[in-house]
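Assess this today:

___
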Amino acid sequence: MNFRNARARQPEIVRSIQKDSRYTNELSEDFSDLLRLTGPRNWIKYNLFTKLMAELTYHGFASLNNLQTLGEEYTGIIQVDADYKQIPSRLLQISAILLEFGGDALYIKVLQKLNRHIEDNDDIVPEAKSKLKSIVKCMLISPSYIKALHKSLFYLRSDKYQISKRCTGINYVLIRHWLQPEFSLYGYKILGVVTFLQVTFSVAIAAFETWKEHKRKQFEITKSLKRFINRDNYTKQIEGQRNASSSCILCLEPRMHTTLTPCGHLFCWGCLLDWLDERYECPLCRETLKKCQVVQLQNYL
């Protein structure tokens, strides 16, 4: 028998999931209370897993026994395969349950290990490592946006509410579809449009913030490079001035045996004495100068 014309709509699917969520929350609290009896240390360590255990226990029991969940029974829907012909196999249902309630944790765990592998791998060049880490970061934050887009598609098309159901091809159909009440679904379509616009706006903001951060990093790199270049030019300038100041103006060579005149000028010892053999004045300021007035500096660079 083909149940394609008896597909469940948004209200039945949403109410079913909300009902199941209520029961799993109560079961999770019961598991938490039992865990508390084993001691505060175990409760603190394993309490986060009680929600997962409740989900797997609740949905797994129904799937293994080919039963409806309480939410499905409340709304009068059942699961069928992708062809809308028969109840999906236990393996397919268990796969959907594992994907729905453990897929996110597994996905994040794999990406975290991949990020550590990229960070610790010295064979990857820094530029490629930075780009790979950016890709992993985008992949880490992408599930929330993908789920929101998928939910908006569900509100618009009354298709599949859960991504796990889409991956496994499981559908929901009404048992007594001929008794379903007639009411407008435009409210869900409006909700789907609003959800889509919200997600699009959020993605645009996240992309803009990423672009701003990229530009900021580029600006910091450029600023550091300019500072390095300016510092290098300044160092070269100082070295040039130092070299120029350590040269003798008479021979234009680095000063040998630096000699000081009373007027404060520096020359080579031999160059200055040769100059004073011709005239008794400073080569620079023309002040009267005699050989007995010059002083040879010791340990002067």
The beta strands are 77-80, 171-174, 258-260, 266-268, 295-296. Residues 175 and 236 are 86 Å apart (CA to CA).
